[in-house]
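Here's a chain:
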Amino acid sequence: MLGKIAGLVSFLGIGLYFTGWIYRWAYFSYFQLEATSLDLPFESFLIVPIQVFFGNLSSGGFSTLFRTIWIAIASLILLPIIVPTIFNLIKFSTKGLDKILNKWRWKLLGWSLKTKRSKITHYIQSFFYFVEIKYQNYDEDLIKEIVVIFWLLMTLFFLGKTQGNIDAIQDAYNETSSLPVVTLITPENKLPLGRKINDLTDDPNRSNFRVIGDIELYKELFLRDYNDKTQPKSRQVIWRLLFDTNGQYYIFPSLPKNAQSNVSPPVVVIQQSDRGEYIVILSPEAAP
């Protein structure tokens, strides 16, 4: 009894971790980040599946829960059909493979009897002593368990990837993002982005910095590095904190409501200072 409980708990843990990893992979892939290169805590992979299966119930969103229930019902209906189908397919394919191998055995045997090279003949004849494929003796219960596990992993993969993409797109847009608004204050000439607090028209000094890569991407960010709400006609950009880890801030300018659906925001990685030179202000919403 305890062995079955331990096995069930182990399988549950593997399923949760697998779902959490797929969710993280899909989420950060939207921001062009690789989950394997990020120092994500192990515990987060076990907690994230709650979001995958149930969604944000506190805000009244039940679409994720309904999708999970619908997929679970569909899986239970399809499994009794898929398992015997795959088993019969394996029997049919191995039976055909056995016929092909037997045909080639006889051809090779005839050729080996005609050749005068005894060493080659010995190797070829030893091939015919291989055990034939006994498709009648396949363990149907084992195949059933393998198919069920494979089907469950496919289902968890679909749920994790779908929810990861949905949450990433939601967090990328300013109107629907749940990520904190970030304001980063640094000493002068520490970053090639940002403005003086008392003079927003003063561009940062870029003479001491070098660029590798797409210069147009940097120029685009250069025009979106701050908000000036005293100018109603100016472009308003809200920067949000994607996450911080290993002494690095991952921030990005959130997308406006009218942004194209196939566009993802660029992510800026800023190394934290060990001398306390940076000030990071986080807020759930932008200041009015």
Remarks:
- The radius of gyration is 30 Å.
- The longest strand covers residues 239-245.
- Helices lie at 2-30, 42-54, 63-114, 118-127, 140-172, 215-222.
- The first helix runs from residue 2 to 30.
